[in-house]
Each structure stands twice: as structure tokens, then as C-alpha cells.
Amino acid sequence: MTTRKAKTWAGLSAAELRDRWNREDVHLYGAVDSTNDLARELADGGAPAGTVVLAREQKGGRGRAGRSWHSPAGGLYLSMVFRPGRVENPELLPLLAGLGIVRELERRFEGLRPGLKWPNDLMAEDRKVGGILSEAVWGDEGIRHLVIGAGVNVAPLKSGAPRGLRSRASSLEAVLERDVPLEEVADAVIAGLEAFVPRAPERLDAALLSLADRYDWLRDRRVGVTPLDGGDSVAGTCVGIAPDGALLFRPDRGALRRLTRVSVEAES
Ligand code: BTN
């Protein structure tokens, strides 16, 4: 699709947003396919760390594991460029992004009790209100650039939203029962993304582990886990998050496992 820059986003100009977020590079669009794709193009062209791309809606929004991301106007679609260089444990990056964002959402939106469904689904009142997609491009010196995109359902889902989504997803406005300005959600997402990702540790230290523990939405839940590269679902219970960022899972039969590349479905 033809992608045109927009003069404003949420009623604010790029200049106002550059001031608000204290950075040079803020790119605003109306309808796009995916902000992650645009951020990646900008990063390929040399855009600095901290570059932010925002769109009013996405026509080809992408989610984890090849899924699509329903992206009508009224939601937040934000991608940010990082240049972390050598990272000891890249598997930890999505989790660090999620932890930063849930912490900021809780700090900034009174009454919100967010959870993080490993590795980085944003939950509220047991429904998904947002997701994060991390995509790295590798070079000889480690990660050449990393784009992290966050989608947050801010306005309530409309009746036209896919049926399966309406039963599992919610929005910040529906949960908080009040208007939620998009730019305040963007403030939280940007602060959350920049909290831990730029200086990613190899392992979660005591403070990060306690944060992971606090927001761990899967803890003690019955789930089915499926390998991302295919295979049967295995039933069991999630028991926590390991210092290296792996999901700790106790299958109904067999010993405790450390899982990394899986998708997790909670039993209802
Ligand atoms: C998931 O939960 O599966 C991840 C969803 C990530 C959606 C965001 S919206 C902004 C950015 N652009 C995309 O195409 N995807 C991410």
C-alpha cells in the first residue's frame, strides 16, 4: 500500500511529540501495513536508536508466530528502533520489553492491574490488551538493529472485530471504564521499552526476577504449550520464569521443563 506520512497523531504534531519524548526521530503515519516494517526500513537506512514510528491504524499488523494483529483506529501501534550491539542473551529481550511496559502501565494508569503472559502479552482482567513483536537483524558484530513493536488496544473493541478476539481480548478503556488518551499510553510504552532493553543483562537479577514474579500472569495456571516449530500441545502448569527468561513448566507427566520457543494457551 502507499504509505503517507501524517501531520499529526492523536492530535499532536511530530514536533510536539519529539519534545514530549525528548528525541529527534518520531515518524507519524495514517494507515500503514505494519509499523515494524517501516521501522525496519528506517533502521536499515541508518535511523538512530530511539527512533519511534507511530500509525493511526495498520492494515497488515503482524503478531508473534506469524499471526496477524487486528489494528483498527483507536489502538496504539508503535515501533521503536534499538541498536544494542552484542547481547549475551537475546531471548531475554522480549521479556524485558514486556516487563518494562507492564510496570509503566501500572504506574501511570491508576486502577490498572496489568499482568504479563510470558513472554510478552499484556494482560488486564484476564484478557489480552496488548502484544509485543521483537525483530532483530543480525550483523558480524551482533545485533545490527532491533525493532520492537507494541500494539495496545486502547479504545473498546468494535463489533466488527474477529469473533475469537472478542472473547479473549479487551482494551484499556473497557477495563478502566474511562477515556484513555493514546499519547499517555505511548508515554508508558516508550518509557517501558527504554527501561531495560538498551542495557539488557544476560540474566534477570534479583530485582528483575521479582518484577517477573509480580507480573507473571501464567504462574500456577493450567496451560497447553505448543512448540513454535510445530508439534503436539502438552498439558501442564506454569510455575514461574527462570533467570535466563525461560518459562518454567511442570507437565502433567514428567519432570519440570525450561521452555523457550513455545506458544502457551491458558485453559479456560
Ligand atoms: C502479539 O501479541 O502477537 C504481538 C503483537 C504486536 C503488534 C504490534 S502493533 C505495532 C507493531 N507492528 C506490527 O505489525 N506488529 C507490532
Structural overview:
By secondary structure, the chain is an alpha+beta fold. The protein has 2 domains: about 10-200, Bira Bifunctional Protein, Domain 2 (BirA Bifunctional Protein, domain 2, 2-Layer Sandwich), CATH 3.30.930; about 220-265, SH3 type barrels. The chain contains 7 helices and 14 strands. The chain has helices at about 15-20, 35-45, 95-110, 165-170, 170-175, 180-195, 205-215, and strands at about 10, 10-15, 25-30, 50-60, 75-80, 115, 120-125, 125-140, 140-150, 220-225, 235-240, 245-250, 255-260, 260-265. The strands form 3 sheets. The protein has a 7-stranded mixed sheet, with helices on both faces. A 5-stranded antiparallel sheet has the order 13-12-11-10-14. A hairpin with a 3-residue loop joins strand 6 and strand 7. The longest helix is centred in the middle third of the chain and has 16 residues, at about 95-110. The mean pLDDT is about 95. Biotin binds near residues 69, 149 and 151.
Give a quick summary of the entry.
The chain is an alpha+beta fold and 268 residues long.
List keywords for this structure.
globular; five-stranded antiparallel β-sheet; about 270 residues; BirA Bifunctional Protein, domain 2; 14 strands; seven-stranded mixed β-sheet; binds biotin; alpha+beta; SH3 type barrels; about 25% helix
Cα-to-Cα separation, first versus last residue: 39 Å
Q: Taking all residues together, what is the mean pLDDT?
A: 96
Uncertain runs with pLDDT below 50, 5 residues or more?
Answer: none
Bound molecules: biotin
The rounded Rg comes to: 18 Å
Sheet with most strands: 7 strands, mixed
Compute the number of strand runs. 14
Please name the CATH architecture of the largest domain.
2-Layer Sandwich
SSE pattern: EEHEHEEHEEEEHHHHEEEEE
Q: Helical region count?
A: 7
The domain tally reads 2
CATH superfamily descriptor of the largest domain = Bira Bifunctional Protein, Domain 2
Helix content: 25-40%
Beta-strand percent range: 25-35%
The CATH topology of the largest domain is: BirA Bifunctional Protein, domain 2
